[in-house]
Amino acid sequence: MSHPAFPQYGVRIKKTSFCDDSVKISDANGTKHFPESWNSNANVFFIDQPVGVGYSYADFGEAVGGTEDAAKDIAAFVAVFFENFSKFKGRAFHLAGESYAGRYLPLFASEVYDQNARLVKAGVTPINIASIIIGNGWTDALSMVLSYFDMQCTAASVAPIMDIASCVRMKQVLPRCEKWVKQSCVDLYDSINCHAALQFCGAELSEPFATTGRNVYDVSKECEGGPSDLCYPVTAHITAYLNSSSTRTLLGVDPSIPTPYSICSGPVSSVFDAARDEERPETPLHVAALLERGVRVLIYAGTYDFICNWIGNERWTRALDWSGHEEFAAQDLRPWNVDVNGVQKRAGITRSAGGLRFATVEGAGHMVGVFLTVLDVELTGFFEVPYDKPKEALALINRWIAGEEL
C-alpha cells in the first residue's frame, strides 16, 4: 500500500488464516478463545514498533533514534492504512498502549493530529483521532521516581514491603531527589544533570526493591523465573510459540527475516537509553495539548504494579497544567464498579473532568488487561495464565470508547 503524501513509505498487509477472534488453535503451541478480548467491541490492529521490535524490520537498516522519530513512522502508517482501507475513513481512532506507551502515545497522537492539516491540504480525509488510552504508563519521570517510596513504605498498594531502616533513608532522600530532578529535568532540562539526578534517585528509591524478591510488575507476588523472563516464566512459552514456523506463517511474517522473535529488543533499548528518551520532560505537555484540542485521554493503572504505578500516574495527572486542571484536581477519587453475576463489585477508583480520566484497577499489576493462553509443551492440555483483571479492563475500555461514565 502507498500514499501520495508519503512517497517514502510503503505498507504491506499480509492476510492471515484468521478471520474471527473466536478461532481456537489447539496444536502443539497454541491459543484459545478469549472472551474478554478488546476486539469484541472494536476493530483492533497491533503495531510492532519502533523498527526492530517484535517482527518489525527495515529493508535497508533504517533505525529509530527515539520517540520523536517513531512518531513520524506511526503517523505515516496510520495515514497509509486509512487511505487504503477506505471503509474505516472517518471512524473514531483510539491509540492504546501500556508501560512505555506513556511516553509513546502522547507524541504519536500529537504527530497524527498535526499531520491532519497536511492531509487536508493534500485532499485526503484526516484521521479522526478520538483518544489515547495509557495503561500503567511511564509519562512523568519525576512523579514516578518519587512514588517508589510510597509503593514500598506505605500501604498504597499492599502492606509496606520494605524494612523500616530502608524506608527512613528513602524518606530523607525524597526532598533532595524532588529538588534535583525538578531543577535539572523539568524546569530547565539538562541531559547530563538530569541523568545524574535520576540515576541517584533510582539507586536510592527503586533499586532497594530488588532485595525483596518481589515481582516489579506485581508487588503482591514473588518474582518467578528471574528478570530475563520479566518475572513471568510463561514468556518463554510465548517466545517459543511466536518463533514457531507455523505461527510465523499464520501471521504472515516475512520468511526473509532472520532475527527470531523476542519479548524485548536489546538493540532498540540501547538506542533509546543513549538518547535519554525516558527522561524527557515534555511528554505531559503533549498530553495537555491533546486535551486542549479535544482528544480525550484515559490514564489507568493496576494498583499492584511497582515500576509504573498508580501513585505516580495519579500525581502527574492531578498536577497537569491544562484548562481543565482546577476542575480535575478538585474531584475526589471515587469508586467505580463492574457487574459480576448481577452484583456490582468495586473495580477501582477514578477521577475525571473534561476529556481527562484517571482510573485504577484494584488487584491488578502491570499487565492489567493482558490474558494469554499458551500450551506448555511439557504438560498435557492448556496452561492458562489470566493476567490480572481482564473483565474489569474490558469494562473500562468499552465504557471509555462509548463515552460513558465509569
Automatic annotation (TrEMBL):
Q: Which InterPro entries match?
A: AB_hydrolase_fold (IPR029058), Peptidase_S10 (IPR001563), Ser_caboxypep_ser_AS (IPR018202)
Tagged with keyword Nucleotide-binding: no
Gene3D superfamilies tied to this protein: 1.10.287.410, alpha/beta hydrolase
Does the record's keyword annotation contain Secreted?
no
EC number(s): the record gives 3.4.16.-
Family label = Belongs to the peptidase S10 family.
**Name listed for the protein in its UniProt record:** Carboxypeptidase
What is the scientific name of the source organism? Answer: Asterophora parasitica
What are the leading ranks of the lineage? Answer: Eukaryota, Fungi, Dikarya, Basidiomycota, Agaricomycotina
